[in-house]
Specification:
Layout lengths: L1 E7 L4 H14 L4 E7 L10 H16 L5 E9 L2 H14 L2 E6 L7 H6 L2 E4 L7 H19 L7
Parallel strand pairs: 1-2, 1-4, 3-4, 3-5
């Protein structure tokens, strides 16, 4: 089983330990990689639509027509059990799951339209970096649920 996560930008130093912690925890269940694509530009000086379009272009280049699940503020909210079932269902379809997280300005409409699934972590807005950490934690939790293992140690 393989999971790939595509996200614009990079992870900040203060969240790097959390990313690595969950990547290590997940590694006993699946091969996980986080692929960062360039940000589309300076959010303070450039046109937001141009930025979103550039990020989408970089993400589509990495996707190579693969199906993906988009982490989207307007997506469906799931419980952790629902998310674990989503993982299970996706792995029955394919040995690979690809997740896409938007950048600082969100996601381009084309990414939204072409997503196989769209899920949301909350009605609140999180940074793309925090979404990455939350996604990794939920993937780990999802595997623990699927294997009927205790989560807390």
């Amino acid at each position: 089983m393989r999971i790939e996560i595509l996200v614009p930008g990079k992870i900040s130093k203060h969240l790097l330990d959390a990313e690595n912690y969950y990547l290590e925890k997940i590694s006993r269940f699946a091969d996980v990689s986080v692929e960062f694509v360039p940000l589309g530009g300076d959010v303070n000086t450039e046109n937001p639509k141009v930025i979103l379009s550039k990020e989408a272009e970089a993400i589509f280049k990495k996707l190579k027509d693969r199906r993906y699940i988009l982490i989207d503020l307007w997506g469906k909210q799931l419980t952790s059990e629902d998310f674990s079932n989503l993982l299970d269902k996706q792995f029955q379809i394919s040995s690979e799951i690809v997740f896409v997280i938007g950048g600082p300005l969100g996601v381009d409409e084309e990414l939204r339209k072409k997503a196989a699934e769209r899920i949301s972590f909350s009605k609140m807005t999180f940074t793309h970096e925090m979404c990455l950490v939350i996604l990794l934690e939920q993937i780990f939790r999802g595997f623990k649920i699927l294997r009927n293992e205790k989560y807390h140690y």
